[in-house]
UniProtKB/TrEMBL annotation, chains A, B:
Residue intervals of the N-acetyltransferase domain: 2-162
Source domain of life: Bacteria
Gene Ontology molecular function: acyltransferase activity, transferring groups other than amino-acyl groups
Entry-linked SUPFAM superfamilies: Acyl-CoA N-acyltransferases (Nat)
Protein name: GNAT family N-acetyltransferase
One Pfam family recorded for the sequence: Acetyltransf_1
PROSITE patterns per UniProt: GNAT
InterPro entries assigned: Acyl_CoA_acyltransferase, GNAT_dom, Mito_N-acetyltransferase
Keyword Protein transport appears in the UniProt entry: no
């Protein structure tokens, strides 16, 4: 049994290693691989409009997502989210549950669309999951991502109305 | 005769009214229409990797562009630019000259692609100009921009390799 709830300050020591492992791997996020904990905290916790945390039956954080406006001014009705799941908690549908939850939250906050700016084309599991939740590939950016093993790979812009 | 040269601190008092008119109109940039001069300065001058200014034969600034990485980390080889031209200097090929100049500069700085994240679909002149300079519409974001007269309109992601 997992629960999705708002972020609390005490979650960070558990969340940071989850986020850190994903950023350090450099395979999915357009974030500096050697980002400092402080910069990651600003990006994931301080700047977004909302942060949610997935906790397991024991109350331990095993995933998180942030939600923010993807652009400013006349583009600020389109939301953007980032999701992380702890390595030991994958394959349990947690990313899908967060995606669904974030779509509902975005609607509640008044957003009318959601956009993912850079979905690495080699990340086929994520692409399939986002498509299952109503996203389409709006376009493909040739060689827009430097994958640590695969080199320059394409990335997709994925989008859906809410 | 126009010249494109690096930004100098003394250019700002001339540039700001040009930039301000375009941001206040709210028709092309995903920037808050009522952005402060200080925030605009940060966005156009402080944060980008490079800023260039177009000056006319009398040495007066009539246009400007900024160049920056569009994403961080494994996406920071893709450049992004924004361009402004003074109202009284339009129709003289200045935007095209800046586009061409920025593509060369991006290559010199080591970028291997350039991306425009939100080209308002109603801005057909700009779209045609970017296409003339080698950009393609990588994808279209339905209703991603709130145009002050036209309401919600589509926006394009435009992209080219360098």
């Amino acid at each position: 049994m997992t629960t999705i709830r708002p972020f609390e300050t005490g979650d960070w020591p558990t969340l940071w290693p989850i986020i850190e492992a994903i950023f350090r791997a450099g395979e999915t996020y357009a974030v500096p691989r050697h980002i400092s904990e402080q910069d990651a905290h600003r990006m994931w916790i301080e700047l977004p409009r909302a942060i949610r945390v997935v906790v397991d039956a024991q109350g331990e954080a095993i995933g998180s997502y942030y939600l923010k406006a993807n652009q400013s001014g006349p583009g600020d009705h389109v939301a953007n989210c980032g999701y992380v799941v702890a390595a030991h908690a994958r394959g349990q549908g947690i990313a899908g549950a967060m995606c669904k939850h974030s779509l509902t939250l975005a609607r509640e906050l008044g957003f009318t669309a959601m956009q993912y700016n850079l979905v690495v084309a080699s990340n086929t599991v994520a692409i399939g999951l986002w498509q299952k939740h109503g996203f389409t590939i709006a376009g493909t950016l040739p060689l827009a991502f430097r994958h640590p093993e695969q080199g320059l790979v394409d990335a997709h812009v994925m989008y859906r109305l809410l």
